[in-house]
Specification:
This is glutaminase. The chain has seven helices and two strands. It is mainly alpha-helical.
Length: 134
C-alpha cells in the first residue's frame, strides 16, 4: 500500500495552491535536499503513468470512496500531481547528495543548509527501513 500512502500525501501538499505550484514546491524542496544538483522531469514518464496507471486510478477511487482525502480535494488533480512526482529524475550525484542529507541529520553536505528536522529524518529513515525505497 505504498502507492496509497503516497497518493494521500500528494493530496495534502500545499492544499491552497494549484497543481503547478504544488509540483514546484516539492521540486524546490527536493532540490534543496540534493544540494542544488540536477533535478529533472520526464514528461514521457508522466504521460505514460497517466495512460497506464489503472491500478493507481483504482486506488484513487478506493481512497475517495473511503473518504481518505481531505474535504474538497480533487482526486484526479491529486493523481496528476502524484504521477508528476513519480516522473522526477535525478542523477547518481544528486541522489547521493539527497541520501547524504538524510545521513547527515537533515543538513545538506553541499550547502550546509538545514533541510530536514531531526524528527523528519528519523521518521523518513524509519519508513524507508520498514517499507523500502520504492
Amino acid at each position: 500500500m505504498v502507492n496509497a500512502g503516497a497518493i494521500v500525501v500528494s493530496s495534502l501538499i500545499k492544499m491552497d495552491c494549484n497543481k503547478a505550484e504544488k509540483f514546484d514546491f516539492v521540486l524546490q524542496y527536493l532540490n534543496k535536499m540534493a544540494g542544488n544538483e540536477f533535478m529533472g522531469f520526464s514528461n514521457a514518464t508522466f504521460q505514460s503513468e497517466k495512460e497506464t496507471g489503472d491500478r493507481n486510478y483504482a486506488i484513487g477511487y478506493y481512497l475517495k470512496e473511503k473518504k481518505c482525502f481531505p474535504k474538497g480535494v480533487d482526486m484526479m488533480a491529486t493523481l496528476d500531481l502524484y504521477f508528476q512526482l513519480c516522473s522526477v529524475e535525478v542523477t547518481c550525484e544528486s541522489g547521493s547528495v539527497m541520501a547524504a542529507t538524510l545521513a547527515n541529520g537533515g543538513i545538506s553536505p553541499i550547502t550546509r543548509e538545514s533541510v530536514l528536522s531531526a524528527e523528519a529524518v528519523r521518521n523518513t529513515l524509519s519508513l524507508m527501513h520498514s517499507c523500502g525505497m520504492y
